[in-house]
Design a protein that fits this description.
The complex is a heterodimer of chains A (116) and B (111). Chain A has strands at residues 5-7, 10-13, 19-24, 31-37, 43-50, 53-57, 65-68, 75-79, 88-95, 106-107, 111-115. By secondary structure, chain A is mainly beta. Classes of the chains: A mainly beta (116), B mainly beta (111).
Chain lengths: 116, 111
C-alpha cells in the first residue's frame, strides 16, 4: 500500500531556531494536511493545503508557521523560530478529497520535534 | 467551536474481555471516522460512518453511529493483544477540510 513518508523521524533543535519538516505524500493525493500530537494527547489540526494554497488553518498555525509544496512532490512545514511548546509529534497527512467531506486521512509516520 | 469527547480515557482489560469506547460531539456530524494508533505509531483509518443509526462490523470490531448523529461507539469483542493502542474518533470541523479528533481511548490488553 502507498505510504506517506516523513523526514526526519526525529529532530532536536534549540529554542529560536528554524526547523523544516518534510513530507512526501502519496502520489495521487491532492489534499494535504499537517497535524500535531503532544505526547499522550489528541491529534490537533494545524493546516490544510490544496492547489498550492492554504485552505484552512487553526489558531496554532500562527505567523511562525508556513507550508510549502516546492516541487510538486514534497510538502514542507517550516517553523521559523521554535518555542518550547512546539515540542510534539508532527504528522503529515493526505487525502483524495476534503476530509471534512468524508475522505479518510492517510498519515505519515511523523516527525518527533524536541525543542530545548 | 466543535468539541469531540471520548470516554474512557484509558482501559486495561484481560485478553478475551470486551471493550467499548464512546464518542460524543457537541454538534451534529455529517460523518464520523475512527482511527487506531498503535504505541509509537501514527493514526490509521479504521472506518467511516455516515448514516443515522448505522452499524458496521469489521471482524471483532463493531462501530455504531447514533440516531441523532452526535455520538458513536466502537466495541471490540474478545480483545486480543494486537488490539492494543489508542482509538480516536474524529468528525468534520466547521470548515470542510479539517477533522476534529477526540482525545482518544488508550486500550491495554494483558495476556
Amino acid at each position: 500500500e502507498p505510504e506517506v513518508t516523513q523526514t526526519p523521524s526525529h529532530q532536536v533543535t534549540q529554542m529560536g531556531q528554524e526547523v523544516i519538516l518534510r513530507c512526501v505524500p502519496i502520489s495521487n493525493h491532492l489534499y494535504f494536511y499537517w497535524y500535531r500530537q503532544i505526547l499522550g494527547q489528541k491529534v490537533e489540526f494545524l493546516v490544510s493545503f490544496y492547489n498550492n494554497e492554504i485552505s484552512e488553518k487553526s489558531e496554532i498555525f500562527d505567523d511562525q508557521f508556513s507550508v510549502e509544496r516546492p516541487d510538486g512532490s514534497n510538502f514542507t512545514l517550516k517553523i521559523r523560530s521554535t518555542k518550547l511548546e512546539d515540542s510534539a509529534m508532527y504528522f503529515c497527512a493526505g487525502s483524495n478529497s476534503w476530509t471534512g467531506l468524508g475522505e479518510k486521512l492517510f498519515f505519515g509516520s511523523g516527525t518527533q520535534l524536541s525543542v530545548l | 467551536g466543535q468539541q469531540v469527547m471520548q470516554i474512557p480515557q484509558y482501559q486495561h482489560v484481560q485478553e478475551g474481555e470486551d471493550f467499548t469506547t464512546y464518542c460524543n460531539s457537541s454538534t451534529t456530524l455529517s460523518n464520523i471516522q475512527w482511527y487506531k494508533q498503535r504505541p509509537g505509531g501514527h493514526p490509521v483509518f479504521l472506518i467511516q460512518l455516515v448514516k443515522s443509526g448505522e452499524v458496521k462490523k469489521q471482524k471483532r470490531l463493531t462501530f455504531q453511529f447514533g440516531e441523532a448523529k452526535k455520538n458513536s461507539s466502537l466495541h471490540i469483542t474478545a480483545t486480543q493483544t494486537t488490539d492494543v493502542g489508542t482509538y480516536f474518533c474524529a468528525g468534520p470541523s466547521s470548515g470542510y477540510s479539517t477533522l476534529t479528533f477526540g482525545k482518544g481511548t488508550m486500550l491495554l490488553v494483558s495476556p
